[in-house]
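FIELD: query
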Amino acid sequence: MQRLALVVRRIDPGPGRYRWLVVVPAVLLLVLTARVVSTDPVGYGVPFWPFANGSDRVEYQVMGRVTATARTSRRVDAVPSAVAAEGVEVLAARVGAGTIWMRVRLHVPDGTRCREVSVLGDGVRINSRRVDC
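FIELD: result
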């Protein structure tokens, strides 16, 4: 007499089976962050590869000079003329009560770029963002 038996092999789920639930969202978050940072690496303070190119590094150096000039200036209203003396073209400037807003044009290897720079207080806080010329 022949006896047949059905054998079903069970796979034991290991601890790494649901690892993709953590890895996929983490990778998506990193990709999204990299896309955002690559739009303005100078503004986010990461002017290095893979986010920035050579023009971004030149722009970062120029903005470093602008920041140093704004911090060493004695008066806030003297910042645009001091920045212009550094070789940066100041397109517009508005002086407020202890603050200043400037639109500057930077010449980089890829062409020209414009940034809005705001100096708050005695040059302690300096913010900038890339804008269209």
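FIELD: remark
Strands lie at 89-95, 99-108, 111-120, 125-131.
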